[in-house]
């Protein structure tokens, strides 16, 4: 957490005294409300989600799993697994100083104003923020976090506790969304970029997130995690609303798609990885022109892992530089179902979900390719071989999403050869940020990025 400059504090106090002298008895300006409205807070909270789930955190994950490759600037360091405690401070601050602070305020205000739909939105968004934070850092502050000046040194919770807190937040959100409109003094609408205030869509998103974090525990509880994930997916399937939850962007310069903005501002820093490009070519996968752009020679070519040379290679495709990016999708739900069913030795359900996941992933791009599904949509071999097929196709489908790094850590699939220019193994976490290490005595300090987080440890 940031320390406050005494100089700035003193300057602020002087300014406050001057203002007090000037306004005399007029203590509160009618043009400066003390609290943001629920309709104002909601998009601010959602923008934090968009920044966290589509910015540097996902760029680094995409390099770790060899969807992309760092070919210039600081991205070469990330591609070589060189993550310093100061490199990642902005990501931590976006989650906490912006996201958690505002979602806590949204939940608090919505509860006070008897607006459970707004409260439910805040709880889902907060669960997503805690989810990505614990996936990257392990133990994190939750209960005491986001309180501003009230607590600049929040205590950390063990990851096992955080996962349960995420589940509890999502369960509470589902209860909020089950209330009737008449029980809501205020209703969300267009200011909710993600679902336009639709409680059914939000409820479905919450169930899928519960399945995601139940499945996250596959190393810790093979059978129980599968049972819970499948039960949550059944609850989601009973809701007619769409699975799709997206990050939404505009072209006004203030909320540009981060993949687009990064490529525009740091051209050549990130290129397509040869690992994924060559995989798509080898499969005759019709998603290749959507995933990547052609290079200056009008061909698709990925950068070999460890080759730091900008300009020659393909970059992220225009489809992923548009006005939306996927956050929670139907294909993810189907891949989770396939994997969880396989853990329960239910081969029939695993097969049905797996082939449906491939079809759904193709349909995202308007592709209907019966030949591709026929060639790659049937599970075969041993249980381990079937699991490898599921995770391989999920690795392809989850392009640009941080979830793919979590999947690789859980399963070791697909098998990835580490960057030969790196002096360490593929990261399994982020180290503690320098601010937390220096200023928070309660921080769980980890410096080694190859140490697994709790759910990743055997």
Automatic annotation (TrEMBL):
Record-linked InterPro entries: SusD-like_2 (IPR041662), TPR-like_helical_dom_sf (IPR011990)
Sections of the chain in a coiled coil: none
Entry-linked Gene3D superfamilies: 1.25.40.390
Domain of life, per lineage: Bacteria
Name of this protein: Starch-binding associating with outer membrane
Protein source organism: Flexibacter flexilis DSM 6793
């Amino acid at each position: 957490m940031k320390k406050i400059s005494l100089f700035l504090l003193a300057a602020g106090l002087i300014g406050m005294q001057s203002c007090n002298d000037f306004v005399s008895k007029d203590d509160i300006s009618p043009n400066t409300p003390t609290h943001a409205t629920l309709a104002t807070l909601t998009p601010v909270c959602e923008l934090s989600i968009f920044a966290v789930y589509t910015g540097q955190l996902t760029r680094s994950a995409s390099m770790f799993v060899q969807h992309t490759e760092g070919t210039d600037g600081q991205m070469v360091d990330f591609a070589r697994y060189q993550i310093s405690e100061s490199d990642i401070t902005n990501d931590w601050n976006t989650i906490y100083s912006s996201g958690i602070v505002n979602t806590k305020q949204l939940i608090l205000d919505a509860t006070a104003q008897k607006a459970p739909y707004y409260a439910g939105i805040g709880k889902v968004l907060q669960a997503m923020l805690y989810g990505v934070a614990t996936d990257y850092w392990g133990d994190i502050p939750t209960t005491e976090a986001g309180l501003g000046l009230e607590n600049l040194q929040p205590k950390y919770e063990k990851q096992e506790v955080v996962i349960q807190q995420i589940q509890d937040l999502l369960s509470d959100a589902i209860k909020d969304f089950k209330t009737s409109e008449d029980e809501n003094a205020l209703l969300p609408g267009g200011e909710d970029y993600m679902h336009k205030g639709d409680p059914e869509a939000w409820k479905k998103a919450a169930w899928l997130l519960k399945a995601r974090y139940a499945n996250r525990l596959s190393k810790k509880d093979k059978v129980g995690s599968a049972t819970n994930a499948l039960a949550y997916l059944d609850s989601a399937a009973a809701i007619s609303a769409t699975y799709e939850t997206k990050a939404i962007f505009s072209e006004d310069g203030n909320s540009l798609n981060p993949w687009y903005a990064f490529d525009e501002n740091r051209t050549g820093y990130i290129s397509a990885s040869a690992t994924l490009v060559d995989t798509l070519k080898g499969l005759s996968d019709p998603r290749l022109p959507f995933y990547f752009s052609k290079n200056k020679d009008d061909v698709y070519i990925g950068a070999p892992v460890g080759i730091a040379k900008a300009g020659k290679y393909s970059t992220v495709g225009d489809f992923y530089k548009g006005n939306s990016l996927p956050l929670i999708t139907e294909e993810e739900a189907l891949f989770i179902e396939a994997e969880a069913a396989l853990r329960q030795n239910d081969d029939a359900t695993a097969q049905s979900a797996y082939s449906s996941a491939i079809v759904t992933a193709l349909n995202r791009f308007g592709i209907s390719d019966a030949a591709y599904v026929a060639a790659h949509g049937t599970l075969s071999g041993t249980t381990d071989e079937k699991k490898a097929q599921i995770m391989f196709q999920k690795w392809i489908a989850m392009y640009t999403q941080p979830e793919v790094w979590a999947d690789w850590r859980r399963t070791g699939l697909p098998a990835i050869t580490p960057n030969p220019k790196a002096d360490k193994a593929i990261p399994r976490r982020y180290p503690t940020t320098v601010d937390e290490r220096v200023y928070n005595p309660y921080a769980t300090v980890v410096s080694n990025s190859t140490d697994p987080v709790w759910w990743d440890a055997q």
